[in-house]
Write a structure and sequence with these properties.
five-stranded antiparallel β-sheet; rod-shaped; 338 residues; four-stranded antiparallel β-sheet; alpha+beta
């Protein structure tokens, strides 16, 4: 080969090398552009996802706040339902109260007519001990004269609407507060799922209080003693002269039977007592007389034809009662608590 042949071969190799380099350059440029485009697309999607994530985080915060408001409202609803459960509705002023609260407030609640009755009977207290004992007798005598003993009388019932709500169920909800993996923080809370109103129509429940018995002023020993003890409350409240008074339940043991009966127990500040039955057991010269318990018990037994008398229970305002299993237990309560 001559120099011309070698030169052609070198030129051909250079041309091939240049063509190869150009081809590689074009291929790499194309791939580089593709990767750039893909990177731009990924960055664009990343930005979009970051914005979406911010929106979702904001929505989660909003939902979290809303959920907590719902929980708070639910708790207040639960409180309201619990308050309403078993409540009476007083129609004249739409006051809501439980049956127990009603009886505490209204059992011995007297009326203006009852206050006037005591005023007419006594003229109120003049401050002397004699007038006080005389007034106690006058209250008994006035009520006894006004009261009609009628074993066939039935007290008409009065009714109040009664709200009966219940039967609600609770579910538990778990919400995520934040974190990743094991660091995720959760909170669980209960919410009221369902409320059942057992009655479509208001339930009506019977009620009883002293003013009704005064209004009808007839019946047997219960109504008689129930009102009389309240009349003594009125006298004490208006005059400011303290006197302990209670409805007294007794058993009278006759020859072949036991009679349950109601009367009134009084106690003064010296620890002496008086009992007013159909008649004033301890009275002298138209005045109530306070005596030791044993003496009063003897007089009370004599009043009931010599039968044995057991003092088995007391009832007083606001609406409290006490039962006694023995005379000694009654005596201890009388001296220490009444």
């Amino acid at each position: 080969m001559g120099r011309i042949g070698l030169s052609k071969i070198v030129s051909l190799l250079i041309a091939l090398l240049a063509a190869s380099n150009l081809s590689i350059y074009l291929l790499m440029s194309s791939e580089n552009q593709r990767l750039r485009n893909e990177l731009t697309y990924v960055r664009s999607r990343l930005y979009e996802n970051e914005e979406r994530l911010k929106w979702l985080e904001n929505e989660v915060r909003t939902l979290n706040v809303s959920y907590r408001r719902v929980l708070d409202s639910n708790r207040r609803l639960d409180d309201a339902l619990r308050y309403l459960q078993g409540k009476l509705i007083l129609p004249y002023n739409f006051t809501l109260m439980s049956i127990d609260e009603f009886y505490d407030r209204f059992t011995f609640k007297y009326t203006g007519e009852m206050v006037e009755f005591v005023s007419n009977a006594t003229g109120w207290w003049d401050g002397s001990e004699e007038d006080f004992l005389s007034d106690l007798y006058k209250i008994y005598r006035s009520w006894r004269d006004y009261y009609i003993v009628d074993k066939n009388f039935t007290m008409p019932q009065e009714w109040l609407p009664y709200i009966n709500i219940g039967g609600w169920n609770y579910d538990r909800t778990r919400i995520e507060l934040g974190g990743w993996g094991r660091d995720i923080t959760y909170i669980e809370d209960t919410y009221l799922k369902e409320v059942l109103f057992y009655e479509d129509n208001p339930i009506m429940v019977p009620i009883d209080y002293v003013a009704r018995h005064f209004r009808y002023h007839r019946g047997l020993c219960f109504s008689y003693a129930f009102v009389l003890v309240t009349l003594y409350y009125i006298y004490s409240d208006v005059t400011g002269r303290h006197i302990s008074a209670a409805y007294l339940s007794i058993d009278i043991h006759a020859i072949d039977s036991t009679l349950s009966h109601g009367c009134v127990l009084l106690k003064n500040t010296d620890g002496l007592i008086a009992i007013v039955d159909w008649e004033a057991i301890t009275a002298e010269d138209c005045m109530i007389k306070f005596l030791p318990l044993d003496t009063v018990r003897t007089l009370h037994s004599r009043y009931w034809f010599g039968y044995q008398i057991d003092y088995i229970g007391v009832w007083m305002r606001p609406n409290t009662g006490r039962r006694f299993s023995s005379y000694e237990e009654f005596q201890e309560w009388l001296m220490k608590e009444f």
